[in-house]
Amino acid sequence: MVAAQLMNQLVKTQAERNALRHEVADLRAQVEWFKRNLFGQGKSETFDALQTRLKFDDEVTQPEVSAAPKEQIHYERSKPTKRELPAERFKDLPVLETTELIPDAVKADPQAYERIGEESTFEVKITPPKLWKRAIVRPKFRHKLDRSQPLTVAAALKRPIDNSYASAELLAYIALSKYLYHIPLYRQEKMSAHWGAQLSRKTMVDWIEAVADWFNPIYGRMRTKLLEGDYLQADETPVRFMDPDQKKGKTTQGYLWVIGRPGSDVVFDWRLSRAHHEANSLLQGFEGILQSDGYGAYESFALKNKPVERIACWAHVRRKFVEAESESPPAVRMVLRLIGQLYRNESDCDQKCYSPKLRAYRRLAWSALVLKRIEKIVKKLQMRARPKSQLGKACTYLLGQWPALLRIQEYGQVQLDNNLIENAIRPSAVGKKNFLFIGSPNAGKRSAIIYSIIVSCQRHGIDPLGYMTDLLHRLPNMSNQDDLDPLLPANWKEA
User: Of 306, 268, 277, 274, nearest to 293 (Cα)?
Assistant: First the structure.
């Protein structure tokens, strides 16, 4: 009896020991991963880099193609670019001042010398922000012959904020400094003292609210145009905000949801949660291809709305295998190389300007064997990987997303990944590091509107300051019946 109890205790202890050993291995793997991402400069990459760097290994074993006709593809290593010279970098700057340096000997006896040429260089100067006033004068006139007629005076200018001294230029500058350059309003308040007159933080808060109100119709039209399309990328990011229902000083988690597609505008949407019903509300009315990460809200939306077909993101898959590289280096590197082949095939299609139809054919014909090899390797890796390890999580994620990953091959107009929309989130991600939190739910809505405007301008290569200033000049003079489409960032032309 005692022997049996001891044996049972021994078995139990051995099981606990094995479990602890596995847990320690998992923790060590996590520590190594954090070391690589925080301190290392080796093979690992940071989160941001993983989203954008998809130029993989140069030497990769090409897959064998049996039935399909062979296609020879040549890859060229890009030569290191020469460092840009200052003269080239600043060639578009205007010359506002010219200084001529005359030797003292020439100054003393100018008749003894003749000018035969010159040596020219330059220095770059800066004009710090400076507040100044524009006087708006409206002369009053009286009819000379008929003094009974009322006085004549020009109508007041329509301005973004009635009875305010803030110009369109100043409003745009304050909003851009906050949302693009991440300068909180309390810092701008301190900085403004050096501009000629200090601006009140509370006043600037009111200005930001007014700017968002003016941009709201443009924002609404941008969203409508996106939802009317047949392809959409979506993502979301957490942002803390001051909740009036909570104790003073306590913050609550909110979310900025983001939608967009290549070549179009980007729209942020402020939501109080990440619940599935928020995705349903955000995407209501959309019919087409929805690309996202593995968050279940998007798949749930697609299942409830049959015209919607969800596809996954290969960048998220790759990122998880990079995180797991230390746990099974040879096999994981093989998976990463195979994913790299998918991206090199895509790059080749980009260089040859393939149509969506031809791109889809190329994906189906060339990538089929690559995808089979990825699936085979990952299934084997999953069988031997611990579920809670980085490798186990990576395998589970890929296989769980596998049908949605394969659908990419059928649609030539879609991207392999969601990186464009993740890059669009970056300004808000940097901003929340500076702001720490948003002041209120209403402030979250205003942030979504202005982020949408700024990021869309960046995507289309237009100056956000010029665009926002132009809108704040035009919109006060427009009616509700005027067409807003020419003013969307995707369509805007500088006057």
Answer: 274
Q: In this predicted model, what pLDDT tens digit does every residue of 62-114 receive, in sequence order?
A: 444 444 444 454 445 555 667 888 888 888 899 999 999 999 999 999 999 99
* Other beta carbons within 10 Å of 103: 8
Residue 27, pLDDT > 80, answer no
Around Cβ 268, how many Cβ atoms within 10 Å? Answer: 29
Question: How is the beta sheet containing 266-271 ordered, strand by strand?
Answer: 266-271, 251-260, 231-242, 289-291, 309-311
Residue (of 38, 482, 474, 427) closest to 221 by Cα position: 482
Q: What angle, 0 to 180 degrees and rounded to 10, lies between the N-to-C axes of helices 390-406 and 356-384?
A: 150
pLDDT at residue 214 greater than cutoff 90: yes
Cα–Cα separations (whole angstroms), residue 294 to 113, 367, 435: 78, 22, 29
Tens-digit pLDDT profile for residues 400-430 = 999 999 999 889 999 999 988 888 887 666 6
382 and 396 Cβ atoms separated by less than 8 Å: yes
Contact 413, 356 (CB under 8 A): yes
Question: Which run of H or of E encompasses 381?
Answer: helix 356-384
The pTM is what?
0.77
In 3D space, the residue among 43, 46, 51 whose CA is nearest the CA of residue 416 turns out to be 51
Decide if 312 contacts 408 (C-beta within 8 A).
Answer: yes
Rounded CA separation 416/315 (Å)? 8
Region of 341 (left: φ > 0; alpha: ψ -120 to 50; beta: rest) is alpha
